[in-house]
Amino acid sequence: MVENEITKNKRQWVRKWIDDRNETGGSALLLKQLRFEDPAEYKLAMRMSPQNFDELLSMISSSIQRHDTFMRDALPAKIKLEITLTFLASVMNYRFLSHFYRVSKPAISQLIPEVCWAIYTALKTHIKIPEREEEWKIIEDGFNTKWNFPSCYGAIDGKHIIIKAPPNSGSEFYNYKKTNSTVLLALVDHDYCFSYIGVGANGNASDGGVFKNSSLYRRLEDGLLPTNGVIVGDAAFPLKNYLLKPYPGTQLSTAEKVSNYRLSRARRISENAFGILVSRFRVFEKAIPTHVDTVDAIVCAACALHNWLRKRSSSYITSTCVDREDNDGQIIEGTWRSEINPLPSISEQQRGNHSMTAKEKRDLYRNFFMTAGSVPWQLDRIH
Questions:
Q1: How many CB atoms neighbour CB 34 within 10 A?
Q2: How far apart are CA 282 and CA 45, in angstroms?
Q3: What is the spatial distance between Cα 120 and Cα 118, in angstroms, rounded to a whole number?
Q4: Virtual torsion, Cα 71, 76, 80, 82, nearest 10 deg
């Protein structure tokens, strides 16, 4: 009698097609079949191998698994993670996810931010600014070996994450591209991993202000980098003793053009990191139609997964995925460029008064690139 009463109550709460989840849902049928019969397709669907999925699930299961109640059974942590990874990896909306996994839309809207924050909490140690000298040395060697740029410890960039404007938000998130967005500010190391991310700045915030209001800016001002170290950025960032940006204008000397070319080579690291992020997590291809707080969770989770998979999977970033050079310094573009539209960059900053020491630092690199630090093909690349 008790079992009959429970079944009766569940019918009142759960639609029949949802109640059949364990028999006919996407987790029970298609993903299970792909896992055992076609791991390569499973990896395309989940953006990770079955082994990586199981490892990640073991790390977050205890924080996302709920208890069954008298009225209904709790959604398994495995299905919650599958739904979230499908959402991140594709452009599926909540209704399509609901039909595929046989989970209600309200449940999906609640579980996605929950699982995203759980992923970020479990993996955030993979997004870290170096603390030890040997860690900085690895990054420096990477930039010097691959891009012939000495004493460089990262490439900084900022991108607009396109969102659906929240109700009654007015122009709060409206950016220069005439879309609504939040800003992702990131520092990228030599290996296409994020050393730092700053999320949540409104799209209409001044681009210089996004950087200056970040915790990264304060740490850089306080001497974060090793002695004489620099990071590289584009025209959206201020020229600093520790931050090199291109020479402005079109009437440039040969040495200045070469310096700008060499700096752009080093900055390709950040451009490619963002490109790989979007090509793997297609949720960023369209305006994200969630609450702004959920957007922050999505961005944090995707960046953490990006770094984690870079270290865990040899196929997450292959040699053809990213830009590379032939023997003459000619760029061979990575495959991500033909797969996606890149995220919009933050706009160029108004020219300001830079310190004399910052200008001298940039000039030192300019002179170095024309003498001891020159590469054979650089003059060909500026014409």
A1: 18
A2: 11
A3: 5
A4: -140
Query: 214, 252, 137, 206: which is closest to 352 by C-alpha?
Result: 206
Residue of 378, 184, 199, 182 lying closest to 273 (CA atoms): 184
pLDDT tens figures, 329-370 = 999 999 999 999 999 998 876 566 789 999 999 999 999 999
Could you tell me the CA-to-CA distances from 69 to 75, 182, 339 in Å, in that order? 11, 38, 45
Query: In Å, how far from its chain's centre is CA 2?
Result: 50
CB 370 within 8 A of CB 378: no
d(CA 71, CA 8): 10
C-alpha angle 370/259/189, rounded to 5°?
115
The torsion angles phi and psi of 272, rounded to 5 degrees, stand at -75, -35
Distance between CA atoms of 248 and 106, rounded to whole angstroms? 51
Q: What is the pLDDT of residues 252-303, one digit of tens each?
A: 999 999 999 999 999 999 999 999 999 999 999 999 999 999 999 999 999 9
95-129 confidence digits (pLDDT tens): 999 999 999 999 999 999 999 999 999 999 999 99
The phi, psi pair for 367, rounded to 5°, reads -70, -40
SS3 165: coil
pLDDT, residue 238, reads 94
187 - beta bridge partners?
156, 196
Query: In angstroms, rounded to a whole number, what is the distance separating the alpha carbons of residues 201 and 299?
Result: 12
User: In what helix (H) or strand (E) does residue 186 lie, and over which residues does it extend?
Assistant: strand 181-188
